[in-house]
Structures are given as C-alpha cells and as structure tokens.
Amino acid sequence: MSKIGIHLLTWTSTLDENALKYFHKAKEMGYDGVEIFLPNPLEIKPKLIEKMRNELEKLGLECTGSAGLGANDNLVDENKSIREKGKTHLKKWIDICSDLNCHDLAGVLYGTFEMSKGRGRTQEEWDLAVDSLKEAADYAKDKKVTLGMEVINRYETYFLNTAEDGVRLVKAIDRDNVKVHLDTYHMNIEEKDFYNPIIKTGKYLGHMHCCGNDRGIPGTGHINWDNIFKALAEIDYHRWLVIETFYGPIEGIPVAASVWRKLADNLDDIPREGLKFIREKAKQYGV
Coil, helix or strand for 183? Predict the structure, then answer.
C-alpha cells in the first residue's frame, strides 16, 4: 500500500524546533509521514536536522522533502554563477534528506518559480536543466535519494506544465532516481483529464500530491478522484500520496500560492478529513 503524508506547510512555513510539534500532530492523526519544506539549505543548522531525525524516529514517522529553486539559484538561468548556486543548493538539500533518512526530494528542482518571460522555455534552458539534473541525480544516487520533478501550472512556471513534459524531462535526464512528481491541483488547471496523464506517466511517476481543486479538503471539490485512483492502480503505483495545502494566515504562503481566505472552518479539518478520504480511496482501489 502507498504511504500517506501531510505537508508541513499545512501548519507552518518556518522550519525550526517549533515545527517538531507538528510531527506529533501528524502522528496523532494517523499519517505515515510528513513532507518537510526545505528553505535556503545553507541556513538549516545541523543540530536542527539531528533533532528532526530523532523526533521522527521516536514517533515512528517517515518523511519526504520538498524544495524549490528561485530567481537567485535557477538551474536554467543564463548566468553561470546563478546556475552554480542552484547546483550547490540542490546538493545541500540532498545531503539534508540523507541526514534525515529521507529518500524522496520533490518540487521545482529544475528552475525558478516564474510565470513567464513573455515566451515559452527555450531549447537552451531545457539542455541546461538536463545537464544540471544529471549531475544532481548522480550525486543523489550515492545518498539513496530520488528526485521528483514537479509539474506545476502556467501561473507559477513557464517551464514544466504537463505530465507529458515531465516525462520528456525525466527521459532526457535518464537516471533511475529521477521521477515525475504530479499534483492534482496543478493537473486540474493544465490537463484535459486526470486518468490519461497518470497512465501515460506510468513507471516514471515517483511522487503524488493529492490536493483539492481549491487546495481545500480532498474530496470536497470537483476533482475526479475515482479516475485518479483507477489510474494509479493500473500503473501499480505504491509510493507516497501527500496532501498539500496552504492555510491563509501562514506568513509568506498567501503571496506564493494566492491563498487569501480560509479553506476550512478549522485548519485541522483539512489534514484530518483529507487523510480519511485519501485512505479510503487508496483502499478501495488497492493503491
């Protein structure tokens, strides 16, 4: 069976010792693990990593990592120094995942969150991403970390918007530990349906975010979950299913994700009811 995780951005955008209390909350709710958003990796202290790992082990929780490159560490920037900074950050994130006994790092690992340059991606940018990610994948292999290339919507990047593009990128990188990361929120914007993109991604699918169409409680919106889980069953997917939501009051997140209102009457309703729904669907379809 797949493991079900909850993104820590559900409760906090700050990674510090205070975040450890949310490990306990996730455990109490019945999650198998937490997804930890990793900010600037050079600012994450080794002592904090050690405390997180110890707390996870004590609770019997696993974890996955998520990260995203920005304008100052973009792997496809024309400026070589910016690209090199991106490589450094990506390798540091991989080190942190390894130290946390975390085997999955997913997110916008190929380039910046940037809606548009007034054009689509260029072949030069594509080649830069492929070359840099081959290097990162080889580094990650020794650390037993799999990299997930997240496909996100056109309003957050111009580089990778569809599952088909995600598969193309992963095939070009040609490393066993590089996979496609799909997210139902983004799929709802960019794909014609949910079933076919998952089927066509097939063995290349390595990570899955299960989100409501408004990032609210999974199962309460118009996402076709039966088609999603039918497809996951048919490709024999048994990796992570992670609920990712952003709650309005969290500092920084409303601007990044355009969440300007409460998505549920009670914040904990999203992870609690979402877990129940996703677990029932996974059991129904044998995922």
Answer: strand
Structural domain total, the chain:
1
Chain position carrying tokens 């990712």: 244
Position 49 scores a pLDDT of 98
Range of the domain at 58: 3-285
Strand, helix or coil for residue 76: coil
Can you give the pTM of this predicted structure?
Answer: 0.96
Q: Please, which residues have CB within 8 angstroms of residue 60's CB and are 6 or more apart in sequence?
A: 27
Confirm if 19 and 12 have CB atoms less than 8 A apart.
yes
Q: How far apart are CA 2 and CA 221, in angstroms?
A: 23
Looking at the DSSP bridge assignments, the partners of residue 65 are: 36, 105
Q: What is the pLDDT of residues 181-205, one digit of tens each?
A: 999 999 999 999 999 999 999 999 9
Residue 147 and residue 15: Cα distance in Å, rounded? 21
> What is the rounded distance in angstroms from the CA atom of residue 160 to the CA atom of residue 157?
7
Closest CA to 7 of 189, 246, 252, 180: 246
Rounded to 5 degrees, what are φ and ψ at 38? -105, 110
Rounded CA-CA distance 189/64 in Å is 25
* CATH number, position 262: 3.20.20.150
**149 close to 117: Cβ distance less than 8 angstroms:** no
Q: Do 223 and 256 form a contact (C-beta atoms < 8 A)? A: no
